[in-house]
Amino acid sequence: MKTSSLALLAVVTVAAAAGPAVGVVIDREFHESFDVEEGHRLTVEHGDGDVTITPWDKDVIDVEVIYHAELTSIGFGDAPDFSVEFKQTEDGVFVTGYETSPDRVDIFRSIKKRQYTYTISAPSYVALTLRGDDGDIEIEGWRGDVSIDLDDGDVTLGDILNESTRVSFQDGDVEIAGLEGELTLSGDDGDIDLSAVKAPYVRIALQDGDVDIEDLEGDIEIDIDDGDITLDDLASERVELRGQDGSIDVGLLKTERLDLDISTDDGGIEVVVDAAQSFEFLITMDDGDVEVALPGVTGFSTAEHRVRGTYGAGDGRVRIRTADGSVVVRTAD
């Protein structure tokens, strides 16, 4: 108790020496435009700001940054501020926003209100690299490659047609409606929601959160620790799903040759296939029930912890492994 009292007294003494609380209002607005052409890249270091990028038909990148903050501060040195650095090179434009207080020591700081936005218009052929801490990102109608690294914040993409889209995040949700091109998503905490995706390959790695996909064409690989996987209207020849805790539900459209591999520890698995699909199947489990509702299965056999058989001509392959949880494999109603 004596130690805590002394620590509190020290904080009060330092705060008193620093002077009274100071209310700070920061209003900054920046606007720059750059001529660009095919092959150029836009790199934005946006800190905690929200980013909105929309295409237009001009060969110009137009950037508007608005920063407004109201805060109370007790400390030593210059008041906090905000600035943006713009730079153009032969192959790209660089935008870096940063909050400044280089010589300041804060004993206490409280932000009452903050508005921090990047509004960008650019030709859709420009490749994008976005790196931020906190803040949401929204991109619509893009044709250049997209690379996003974000700590906390949501990512919303729509009508993306390019060679590659990559999103890496810590906490936040990712929503993509309409995408053609290779897609890679990796995150710690947050949900992933995809629809109308056509990709040669989709790779998803997630720690905690749910993955929900509807209407996807292309090979897909998902690795998730805690969370549910729900896939519907999936037109994929190669599907690889790995989970720890959570259910896995897969609805498959007919493809030329199905190669499905699912492995999980805990959680139920349901696979719904087109009646015209054909494959050999092998299901292994430690504990749990297995239901195979496929008409006309041949070579059906059951043994301890194993169920196998052939559906149709057996052109494809289905492998399911689970420790605990029920497994259902059936045709669509």
Write the layout of secondary structure elements.
Elements: H1 2-18, E1 22-35, E2 41-47, E3 50-55, E4 60-76, E5 81-89, E6 92-100, E7 105-122, E8 127-134, E9 137-140, E10 146-152, E11 155-171, E12 174-189, E13 192-208, E14 211-226, E15 229-235, E16 238-242, E17 248-252, E18 259-266, E19 269-273, E20 279-287, E21 290-293, E22 298-303, E23 306-311, E24 316-324, E25 327-331
Parallel strand pairs: 2-6, 2-8, 3-7, 3-9, 8-10, 9-11, 10-11, 11-12, 12-13, 13-14, 14-15, 14-16, 15-17, 16-18, 17-19, 18-24, 19-25, 20-24, 21-25
Antiparallel strand pairs: 1-4, 4-7, 5-6, 20-23, 22-23
Structure overview:
A hairpin with a 2-residue loop joins β5 (81-89) and β6 (92-100). This protein starts with a helix and ends with a strand. With 333 residues, the protein is mainly beta. It has a 25-stranded mixed sheet that branches. Helix content is 5%, strand content 70%. The chain is elongated, with a radius of gyration of 26 Å.
Low-pLDDT stretches are 1-20
What global shape is seen?
Answer: elongated
The main pleated sheet reads as: 25 strands, mixed
Q: Summarize the helix and strand pattern as letters.
A: HEEEEEEEEEEEEEEEEEEEEEEEEE
Helicity level, as a percent range?
A: under 10%
- The CA-CA distance between the termini, in Å, is 69 Å
- Count of DSSP E strands? 25
Question: Counting H and I runs of at least 4 residues, what is the number of helices?
Answer: 1
Rg, alpha carbons: 26 Å
Mean pLDDT: 89
Strand content: over 45%
Structural class of the secondary structure composition?
mainly beta
